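pinning this so it doesn't scroll away 📌
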Amino acid sequence: MTSLVDRLVRSGYVTREPHPTDRRALILRPTPGSDQEVRSTLGDMHARMMEAAETLSSEDSAVVVDFLRRMRKAIDGIATS
C-alpha cells in the first residue's frame, strides 16, 4: 500500500497530510484537477474489465469465483494465525 501511495504522491495525484488527532495516521487528499483524470482512467479501465468478464461462460465464471473464494480463505487463514 505504501508503494502505491508513494507513486500517487510522486505523480502529483494525491498529497499526504498529518491526521489532526491521530499521530500514526495520514490523510490522503486528491490534488486539485487530478480527480477528473483519475475518474476518466478508472472509467476506461472499468469498461475494459467488464468487457473481459462478460466473455466468460457460466462455467468459467463459477471456476473463477471458486478460486477467488479459496484464495480469500487462504489469506484470511494467514491473518488469523
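📌 and the second one:
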Amino acid sequence: MKDSREQWSSKIGFILSSAGAAIGLGAIWKFPYVTGMNGGGAFFLIFVLFTIFIGLPMLISEFIIGRAAKKEAVSAYDHLAPDSAWRIIGRLGVAGCFLLLSFYSVVGGWIIIYSGLSLTGNIITDHADYGQLFDTVIGTPWVAMTGVVIFLLINVIVLSFGIKNGIEKASKYLMPLLFIFFLILVIRSLTLDGAMEGVQFFLNLDFSNITGEGVLYALGQSFFALAVGFSCMVTYSSYLSKNESIPSSASSVVTLNIIVSLLAGLAIFPVVFAFGLEPTEGPGLLFVVLPTVFSQMGLGPVFLSLFLLLFLFATLTSSFSQLEIIISAFTANKKYSRKKVAVISGIIVFLASIPATLSFGVLADVSIFGKSVFDATDFLVSNILLPLGCLLIAIFISFRMDKAIVASEFQSGSNINMGWFKAWRFLMRWIIPITIIIVFMSSLGIF
C-alpha cells in the first residue's frame, strides 16, 4: 500500500530542516559561552570529536527509527515494538518538547523584543545601560509576554502549513540566510583591531585549562546541539523517502552544525577580545556585551540587527521541530486538522510558559529546589529528560528493534559498506550508552 503521508520534497529540504532543528540556542548562544568557560580551542576540538562519534550515531538512530516506522514519534515505537513499554520513549519526547518549549519560547520572546528594538534603533543609543535594558525586558511582564506570544504565533503559522509548505519552505529561506549573516559578521569581526587574540583563544589547542568537568560539558553539548533525545528527528525522518541515504543526510546535518559552531566562535570571540571583554558572560554575551561592543563599531546598529535576526532564525527553526512532534502526535489519527491542533498547541504552550516568563519579574522570589522556575525547567529538560531519552533510544535500536530492519534502513538509498554499519552498531550498543550514563550521573552530581 502506498504511503499517503506527506514527504519532504527533496533531500536538501530535509537536511536544511533537520539542521535548522539542531542549530538553535545551543549552537549560537550556549556554545560560545561554554567554550569561553572551558579553555577555547581545546574544548572546541573535544566537542567536534564527541559530535562526530556520539552525536552523529545518535542522529542516525533517530532517522532510522522514524523512516522505518513511517510514523510520528509516539506511534513509531508502538509500530516497531507493538504491545510493549517502549512506547514511553515517544511519549517522553512529546512531554519533553512541551517542557522545552515552555522556556525556549521565553528566550525566543526576548530575541523578538530585542530584534524589534534593534530594527527601530532603540538599543544602541548614547550612554545606554545595556544591563538595565536587559533587566527591564525580562522583568517587565507585559513586554516579556508579548515576545512569547509573537514567537509562538510565528511557530503556529508556519507549522499550520505542514511539512512541504511550512517547515521545509521556511527552512530553505532561513538556513541560507543564517549562513550569509554569519559570514558577514565573521568578516566584520576579523577586521577589528585585536581580533586575532580572540581567534587564537578559540582555535589554539591549549589543553592546560581542560578539566574533567569541561570534557563532560563538551560531551553534553555534542548531543544536545543535534536535537537528539526527544525523538524530534524521528518525526522529521518519518517523512523521508526511502531513496535518501540516512548516514549521508545525518552527516550533512552534523557538518552544518559544526560549521555554525565554528562561525559562532569566529563571530563572537574576536569581537569580545578586541574590546577587552570577558568571553564568559553567559546570557549577557548576547543581550548585554554585544550591544556594548556593536555600539563602538562603525555601522554597529546594522550589525547588531543582523546578529539578532540571525539568532531569531536559528531559534525559530529549532522550535519548529519541538512543536512539530507535539502537533504530529495529535494529528496522526486524522481526527483533527493540523491547523486546529497547531493553534491549540500554541495556546497550551503559551499558558505553560507563563511561570518561566514571570520568573524574572513577579515570580522572581519563587524557587524550586533553589532554582527559579525558568532554571528548574531547563535543568529538568537538559539534565534529566534529554539524556534519559538518548539512553532509551540507544538501548531500543540496539537490543529491541529488528536488526534486519535497522540494517536495511542504514543501507537504503546508498551503497554504503557494511563495515560502517557494524562500526555504528558497536558504538550504539556499547560505547554510547555507557557514555550517556556517565554524563547523566555527572549532571545529577553523583560523581
